[in-house]
Design brief:
The chain is built from 14 helices and 16 strands. It is of the alpha/beta class. The protein has two domains: 5-45 and 324-437, Aspartate Aminotransferase, domain 1 (Alpha-Beta Complex), CATH 3.90.1150; 81-322, Aspartate Aminotransferase, domain 2. The strands form three sheets. Strands 2, 3, 4, 5, 8, 9, 10 and 11 form an eight-stranded mixed β-sheet that branches. The N and C termini lie far apart (47 Å). The protein binds pyridoxal-5'-phosphate. Pyridoxal-5'-phosphate binds next to helix 6.
Length: 440
């Protein structure tokens, strides 16, 4: 079959396709697999009970006082929404955000997408790629990632080529709960502000995930405010990927605040509260951006999926989504992080392993300094032993990883698995890594 250039670009093997294949295979496999590799959220019973109850109620909520054929479930699956997304959900989101933040939003500030991955496909192609400048000359603009490593799913979304510029981090040694053996990435603002692409007008947007996938880093309020100032100075939007952030799922343990203004594009998702299958992403932005996203939705999807919207609407209206996030989801992952850190320290505490300070998200990021093989090779060894993690080199879109050894020395492990899987998986990682450091 002859595919176009577009087809060839999107069918070549990518980091994200490898990750999704491994995840799918592990779920289908009849062999026991220690699944520490994927981005699937955890099963949290208290949260799932609320989803199930809401789901059941949608089928017989008798919305129009007639019968269940008029229930929200059937009205939402039996009709397209307009391309901006389900109107009742958008109204509930506007009410929710205005209740909790002084953003003064209207429905013109919110659009829905089929998962936030879909939003990044739109946004990175809207703000990265070929532009016409004032002289009608073509300028190639990139998405600036102020702090590499970043989310693997950004890497391949550009329709043509890859348009990323990334800034390598400052690596600070820090303590965590009074213990040594941790580090934290910080934005290198000097490198960022001196980046030729930024100064010369070849950046179309700045984007960061906060908390960051893969590291669990949370950029500080001060870092965010400096990024926001830089974005305004260069007249480009600041895109904040809030997939793990506040107010839902609120998997964030450091002291951080969320701000929004007209130059900020905030991306939310229902996935990490435990609903990845409903494919619901939310964009909060200036009306011009919302209109562009709606136009793209019309072409690509006709209208975004409505089922997630139907389930989440009542949870936003009475703030249950926030209570679940604060009282169930966040404490669950914080406990998982504590358990995983303890197990890792027991397994490899005497070796040169460092852990990125766990500040949020559903991962730990481990640094095996001076390991004599790359973590791509480590990934293959661990996979043969039935333990899946993700090697670090895929998390550096915009970085020439051949020139950056650190990009081959880390792994991402999910902490969403049950405790036994954490115990078994970390045991295998420990055995392999200790043997490598011991030169065996
Ligand atoms: N952004 C980040 C940082 C993620 O980790 C993910 C998924 O893992 C996404 C965006 C995309 O999520 P979804 O398309 O399920 O909303």
């Amino acid at each position: 079959m002859n595919f176009s250039k577009f087809g060839q670009k999107f069918t070549q093997p990518t980091g994200i396709s490898q990750l999704m294949d491994d995840l799918g295979d592990a779920l289908k496999s009849d062999q026991p697999i220690n699944m520490l590799g994927g981005g699937n959220p955890a099963r949290i019973d208290a949260v799932n009970e609320v989803f199930l109850e809401t789901y059941r109620a949608l089928g017989n909520d008798d919305a129009n006082n007639t019968n269940e054929l008029n229930s929200t479930a059937l009205t939402s699956i039996g009709n397209y929404s307009n391309p901006q997304g389900d109107a009742a959900f958008i109204d509930a989101l506007v009410g929710f955000f205005n209740r909790h933040y002084d953003w003064n939003l209207s429905a013109d500030n919110v659009a829905l997408t089929n998962g936030s991955q879909n939003a990044f496909f739109y946004l990175f192609n809207l703000f990265g790629g070929a532009f016409n400048d004032v002289n009608n000359e073509t300028v190639d603009k990139s998405i600036l990632l102020p702090l590499a490593p970043e989310y693997i799913g950004y890497s391949d979304v550009h329709v043509e080529g890859q348009h990323f510029a990334a800034v390598l981090p400052h690596i600070d040694t820090v303590t965590h709960d009074g213990e040594e053996g941790f580090f934290k990435y910080r934005v290198d603002f000097e490198a960022l502000e001196n980046l030729p692409a930024l100064i010369e007008g070849r950046i179309g947007a700045i984007c960061c995930s906060r908390p960051t996938n893969p590291t669990g880093n949370v950029l500080t309020d001060e870092e965010m405010s400096r990024l926001s100032d830089i974005a305004k100075r260069y007249d480009v939007p600041l895109i904040i990927d809030n997939a793990y952030g506040m107010p839902f799922p609120n998997i964030i343990y450091s002291d951080a605040h969320l701000t929004w203004d007209d130059n900020t594009i905030l991306c939310f998702s229902l996935s990490k509260i435990g609903l990845p299958g409903v494919r619901t992403g939310i964009i909060v932005a200036a009306p011009e951006v919302i209109a562009a996203v709606s136009a793209l939705n019309a072409v690509v999807n006709l209208s975004p999926t409505r089922f997630g919207a139907a389930i989440a609407t009542p949870l936003l209206q009475d703030d249950r989504i926030k209570q679940l996030s604060d009282n169930e989801i966040k404490p669950f992952y914080q406990q998982q992080a504590t358990t995983a850190v303890r197990l890792l320290k027991e397994a490899m505490g005497d070796y040169p392993m460092m852990i990125h300070k766990p500040e949020g998200a559903i991962f730990l990021w481990l640094w095996f300094k001076d390991l004599q093989i790359t973590t791509d090779e480590l990934y293959e060894i661990l996979k043969k032993k039935g333990t899946l993690i993700v090697p670090s080199q895929h998390f550096f879109p915009g970085v020439d990883v051949t020139q950056y050894p650190h990009a081959h020395e880390c792994i991402r492990m999910s902490i969403a698995a049950d405790e036994q899987t954490l115990i078994d998986g970390i045991k295998v990682i420990g055995e392999v890594v200790r043997a490598l450091y011991n030169g065996k």
